[in-house]
Amino acid sequence: MADGGAAAASGSRSSDPKAGSAELTKVFDEVVANVRCAFVGREPTVRLALCCLMAEGHLLVEDYPGVGKTTLARALARSLGLEFGRIQFTADLLPADITGAVVVDSETRQLAFRPGPVFANVLLADELNRASPKAQSALLEAMEERQVSVDGTSHLLPRPFMVAATQNPYDAAGTFPLPHSQLDRFLLRVDIGYPDRQLEDELLDQAPGRPLPEQIPVVAAPGFVASFAAQVQEVYFAPAVRSYILDLVAATRGHADLAVGASPRAALAVRKAAAALAVSVGRGYAIPDDVKAVAEPALAHRIVVHPVAAVSAAMVVADILGRLPVPVVGSVV
Predict the structure, then answer these.
(1) DSSP class per residue in 293-328
(2) Using an 8 Å Cβ cutoff, are 166 and 67 in contact?
(3) 50 sits in which H/E element
(4) Of 3.40.190.10, 1.20.1250.20, 1.10.10.10, 1.10.8.80, which CATH number belongs to 235-324?
(5) Where are the domains of the chain?
């Protein structure tokens, strides 16, 4: 991984996989604060993006240009000392430009595989929906299987591996809507949105001295992500909390405003994201508030609203959350 030496030199945290939850929470908070040194945006957005990485998922960031989508991905990778890769998606992009290709080595004169930019820990797929469907599909195997296949040979991607894809709204010129099967590969979708007046004033005031993502320090040792991911796998979900997730997902399948409800993979996404959120605050068990916090980012991009419905997917998820009975605390822990 990149910047491993810098991590050691900067007094990074222990990479012991048995690190306690309190230590993981402390480092998690330090990473969030460090990212916000370069990224001017709401803290909940940064926490969700980091939880997505810790849950070994992929992140979709949808918003207009200029709100910091690229900066967020670069700052996350830098703060964790991870290798960062970037692909600018355009209409003429080819699958080989993403995965790499078999070429003739200039020295040995033998065929050799030359890895593409997908071989990174954090891959920024910038303006994903500007590429053709053929180029977009090149990411599917990488996102699902953590490998790419070129000329019949599979090549494993490094771990951790997260695709942080940005896309412009569909009404922007020159965009291709992402197919539902590809949207379903993203664990979470977040909107950065415009900063409030206070944050934007801070951006203007600190513009000359605000560091670039590459200039912020590495604040976590390479083993931090693995330690955190291991804790995510151990989070306890009481039957009442699992039932709450099942009720949430089932409600999308019968909602009058939806043409397509949430899949079983969507239920797993809610569980995984809620578990990461629980670990981020030092808990070894999930509560209904964790599920509520990740419901819209985990579900809204996976459901399809009827063309005649005058609501958004996020509004539907909010409506369902407002109607579902929430398990009482005594039945959770």
Answers:
(1) HHHHHHHTTTSEE-TT-SS-HHHHHHHHHHHSPPPP
(2) no
(3) helix 43-54
(4) 1.10.8.80
(5) 4-229, 235-324
Quick: pLDDT tens for 146-187.
999 888 889 999 999 999 998 876 555 667 778 888 888 999
Segment holding 45, helix H or strand E: helix 43-54
What span, in angstroms and rounded, lies between the C-alpha atoms of 224 and 230?
10
Length of the chain: 333
| 143: Cβ contacts below 8 Å, ≥ 6 apart | 58, 163, 185, 186
Asked if 244 and 290 count as a contact pair (C-beta separation under 8 A), the reply is: no
Measure the CA–CA gap between 234 and 102, rounded to whole angstroms: 41
Residues 50, 280: contact at Cβ < 8 Å? yes
The CB density around residue 117, as the number of other CB atoms within 10 Å, is: 17
Euclidean distance between the first and the last CA atom of the chain, given in angstroms as a whole number: 38
Dist CA 265 CA 143 (whole Å): 14
CA distances from 108 to 104, 114, 116 (A): 8, 14, 20
pTM equals 0.86
Give per-residue pLDDT as tens, 46-80: 999 999 999 999 999 987 777 788 899 999 999 99
Beta strands in 188-237 (DSSP E): 188-190
